[in-house]
Amino acid sequence: MPVRAKDLFRLVEKLAPLELAEQWDNPGLQIGAPEAEVSRVLLALDVDEGVCREAGEKEAQLIICHHPLLFRPLKNIRTDLPQGALLASLLRAGITVYAAHTNLDNAAGGVNDALAARLGLQEVEVLRVTRRQKFLKLVVYVPVSHAEIVRSTLGKAGAGWIGNYRECTFQVAGKGTFLPLAGTRPFIGRPGELAHVEEVRLETIVPEELAGPVVKAMLAAHPYEEVAYDLYPLANEGPTRGTGRVGVPAGRGAVAFEEFVEHVKSALGVGNVRCGGEPARKIHRVAVCGGAGAEFWPDARAAGADVLVTGDIGYHAAKEMISAGLNFIDAGHYGTEQVILPVLRDYLAEHCRQKGWAVEIFLAARQTGPFAFK
Questions:
Q1: Do the domains spanning 120-128+243-334 and 134-233 agree at the CATH topology level?
Q2: If both were cysteines, with which of 29, 74, 104, 288 could 16 make a disulfide (CB 3.0 to 4.6 Å apart)?
Q3: 5-106+338-363 architecture in CATH?
């Protein structure tokens, strides 16, 4: 059975639900068709002519990028201008483009967690909380013979996670009744006769964003034609979601600022950074934000951070941080976001392996940051 582009979209959205995206953003399918068959995928931060050519050379049918190719509605597509020419090239080559942007920034395991992990931070928390994960209670009634099959299916689909525990369910035995009408094909009983069935009430917890695929998987595993199930909203507070992360350097406690600057350069593989603040400051707590995160410096200061690592810091924001007693390291937009690409590659490759999908995942080899340092 061929793998469709939409199957890979679902994998990305399992990691980075679209609900986590900022309102101004435009993640998701950019160009192409959800039903397109895919056997090779190219991952990149941006889609440009070089990435388009590389996708063609690698015979990739899908590009998954971080920055959306289309941010605002188009008024025209002029093929004599760069954007129109790029769109035309992608369409001629039959390449589908999908973007995971601020939803991937904010997701657990996304850009900011990858950046914190690359810098070796521990005790990591969300820097600016924008929402908490919401949960639903799923209750389904299953014949005893299929209770274990449905329970296992729910766990594999993502239900039943409570903290670091998985496949958490509760079961109660009982007796169900139903009267199949004419034209039905009941798994148990006969049309026109009231059936009394030994059933299990199986209940579990489901993240709200996974309710759709979890219910779909449950229905596929359940033997009944018509499945009785309930979804209840819960008041339980789930993990926080939001922008940036804050944590502490691993190992030796406080680190000299100059030493930490060198650590950032080495960890991110960047030859140069811009930095500012008190040179003698000891770094006890670190805030990070992939991409352009200078606006979050007040959050970093409020969280007790001694330094903010991000990109695209402007003159006035730098002055404000120094005045507020917050050191900063600008490792570049590209430098602070490229850390997600190998993480996303490994995530997609593992899930494709688990599903038995013959899909190859590549990282764009030619893409680098736009700036050169002389």
A1: no
A2: 104
A3: 3-Layer(aba) Sandwich (3.40)
How many CA atoms does the CB half-sphere of 2 hold within 13 Å? 11
Q: Angle formed by the axes of helices 211-221 and 147-156, to 10°?
A: 150
Pairing outcome for strands 327-330 and 274-276:
antiparallel
Q: HEC profile for the chain?
A: CCCEHHHHHHHHHHHCCHHHCCCCCCCEEEECCCCCECCEEEEECCCCHHHHHHHHHCCCCEEEECCCCCCCCCCCCCCCCHHHHHHHHHHHHCCEEEECCHHHHHCCCCHHHHHHHHCCEEEEEEEEEEEECCEEEEEEEEEHHHHHHHHHHHHHCCCCCECCECCCEEEEEEEEEECCCCCCCCCCCCCCCCEEEEEEEEEEEEEHHHHHHHHHHHHHHCCCCCCCEEEEECCCCCCEEEEEEEEEECCCCCEEHHHHHHHHHHHHCCCCCEEECCCCCEECCEEEEEEECHHHHHHHHHCCCCEEEEECCCHHHHHHHHHCCCEEEECCHHHHHCCHHHHHHHHHHHHHHHHCCCCEEEECCCCCCCCCCC
What is the amino acid identity at position 237? E
> Taking Cα atoms as reference points, which of 116, 67, 152, 55 lies closest to residue 300?
116
Alpha-carbon distance 147 to 10, whole Å?
27
Chain centre to alpha carbon of residue 43: 14
Provide the token pair at 344: 């996303």
**Fold classified for 134-233:** Alpha-Beta Plaits (3.30.70)
For 326-366, what is each residue's pLDDT tens digit? 999 999 999 999 999 999 999 999 999 999 999 999 999 98
Domain 120-128+243-334 fold: 3.40.1390
pLDDT tens per residue, range 50-105 = 999 999 999 999 999 999 999 988 999 999 999 999 999 999 999 999 999 999 99
Q: What is the pTM of this model?
A: 0.87
